[in-house]
Each structure stands twice: as structure tokens, then as C-alpha cells.
Amino acid sequence: MNFYSCFDQRGNVIARCQTHEEIEVLRRMGRPIAQVKKLRSEEAVVCSLTSSPAEFDEDF
Fold it and tell me: pTM for the whole thing?
């Protein structure tokens, strides 16, 4: 399972997503996504065990 972190212009994490489609939805909603990075395997495991990526992004 892959997870992606979305960053704004200042390098702050503004969302975590599981698919590129989710990232595109956020862009259409007007979120200022400047960069997207795939999480490393160990980060993705922690993310999947602790909560869903949608819970991180309250607007989604």
C-alpha cells in the first residue's frame, strides 16, 4: 500500500493521500499542493496502522 505526503510552497505537510486520484481531488478543491512525495515503506506502515490518510486532511 502506498501513501503520499502533499506539501505546500513552504514545505509544510498539508495532506496525506493513498492515491493520485485523492491528490487530484484536493487540487480541484483548491488546496495549494506544491510537491508530492511518496512515503517510505516504514512510514506507510505506520500511517496505515495509526489512522487513515483521510483523517489527516480534515477538508477531504
Answer: 0.66
End-to-end alpha-carbon separation of the chain, Å? 20
Q: What order do you get walking across the sheet with 13-17 strand by strand?
A: 13-17, 4-7, 35-38
Q: DSSP letter for 11, please.
A: S
For residue 16, the SS3 value is strand
Q: Please provide the average confidence, as pLDDT, over all residues in the chain.
A: 78
Contact in structure between 26 and 17 (CB atoms under 8 Å):
yes
Q: How far apart are CA 19 and CA 53, in angstroms?
A: 10
Q: Give the closest residue to 37 by CA, choosing from 58, 54, 15.
A: 15
